[in-house]
Description:
Blueprint: E1 2-11, E2 29-38, E3 41-47, H1 48-54, E4 59-62, E5 68-71, E6 73-75, H2 87-94, H3 99-104, H4 109-118, H5 121-137, E7 140-146, H6 153-168, E8 173-181, H7 192-209, E9 215-219, H8 227-239, E10 243-248, H9 255-261, E11 266-269, H10 275-282, E12 287-290, H11 292-298, H12 305-311, E13 315-317, H13 331-342, H14 346-352, H15 355-360, E14 377-380, H16 386-390, E15 399-402, E16 405-406
Parallel strand pairs: 1-4, 1-5, 6-7, 7-8, 8-9, 9-10, 10-11, 11-12, 12-13
Antiparallel strand pairs: 1-2, 2-3, 5-14, 14-15, 15-16
The structure holds N-(iminomethyl)-L-glutamic acid and fe (iii) ion (FE).
Keywords: Histidine metabolism, Hydrolase, Iron, Metal-binding, Zinc
Pathway: Amino-acid degradation
Protein name: Imidazolonepropionase
Amino acid sequence: MKLIGPFKQILTLANLPLRGKLSDEQLEIIPDGGILVENGKILKTGVFSILHSEYPDIETEKIEGEQVALPAFTDSHTHICFGGNRANDFAMRNAGKSYLEIAESGGGIWSSVQHTRDASEEMLLNTLMQRIEFLVSLGITTIEIKSGYGLDKDNELKMLRIIKKAQQKTDATLVPTCLSAHLKPRDYNGSNEEYLNYIFTEILPEVKKESLAERVDIFIEKSAFQPEESRDFLLKTKGLGFEITVHADQFTPGSSRIAVEVGAKSADHLEATVEEDIAYLAQSDTVATALPGASLGLGEKFTPARKLLDAGAILAIASDWNPGSAPMGNLIVQASILATYEKLTTAEVLAGITFRSAYALGLEDRGRLLEGKKADFITFATHNFQNILYYQGSLKPEKVFIGGNEVKN
Ligand code: NIG
Ligand code: FE
């Protein structure tokens, strides 16, 4: 057991509801606080001096200077295992080229598939580890990572095995997701339905057998998979025991409904979600995940986060870090920018990148500083928690703790 502190402020996020809008008055702030940790979990939070007098003999890890502590962040949607880079796509888009023109000149998701297939396992693992370390330095200790740049059995399994290897090299929690249904690969001879069936019969049984992922994702969009074929695939996949998440309503509406109908854990993107689907999502347990990094990377509109929260949805915010639409990978920058455009309170943003995004991954054991929760928390060298979002990402975490132990870079 050990006592860590004192912190100028501790934001526990302990009593915030799982869904709907939040005001900053609802934030529980402990002044001059301490965190009591045992076996990697939170035992207690409270005023440091009181905790210290209750447990006079325990080890104390002293915090110098003014620091604010809060739960570590969860990035519930990334594609950070990839080869190559799509800077040319980015430049072409900004020069006014269309999606089709970019794809025809060798860009788009397919180019990342080729680079990922060509990359050595060592290269993929090394670059993945660099990205994980960057995310941990930003206070993100739980990271979802998708496959989806392999798009055939060997290469999808290669990606998922690399993510599994990465887990052995980091204390952060990695949550792998099989996104073989990202796009029908250009070298697949058959219809979309046949390719989905190939995933179901050839890839998913092996994913299960090797315990490579417990979640399956699909990109439902005009340019990828259509709503009806996706529904069938997802229901069958659920039958195999996988949790479901969906890339929904990114450019055209209609697919968040499918996510809700199949009981998906989350529907992510939602930039194009229409009013009635906002209401439908809000009445469900499917988390609505905004991906402001994709809006910023593409120059497209933001997810209607304000409307989703007002309607009572569970709103998470994730980075979507990928080589194409969201190259930045900085969740704090993105979430604080989303807040200014969508008018989100600090409590709503922090909930969206902590316990709400963890809930989207089925991880209810983290994201709040409460007894029994995983002792993943971070500090910022400031006297006031409001400065975290105010500096829009330029204030970086001072310390990152995973399971009660400080991560040293
Ligand atoms: O979430 N929308 C589809 N998939 C990714 C983009 C992946 C890529 O462009 O490589 C996304 O934005
Ligand atoms: Fe994505």
